[in-house]
Amino acid sequence: MNTTIVDKSGIAAKVRTIFSEKLGLEQSALVPSASFTNDLGLDSLDVLETFMALEKEFNIKIGDEDAEKLTTVGAVVDYFAAHAH
Length: 85
Known about the structure:
4 helices; 56% helix; mainly alpha
């Protein structure tokens, strides 16, 4: 894990990289407003697997209640930025 990524732009870059690598998405599609289901066409398993990779990368557990609210790329970036140490 890279513990030096604590600024929001660094977190955003890492989130985009993980979504791109795990799901084969173009980074240009991973804008903050992109909805996982409506814009990116992801299913719940895609999102769950990617969240697990993000949890491992940032060493931050996403609670089930929080995970349900994280429906866009920007929301995920904001979540990890708010919970980064």
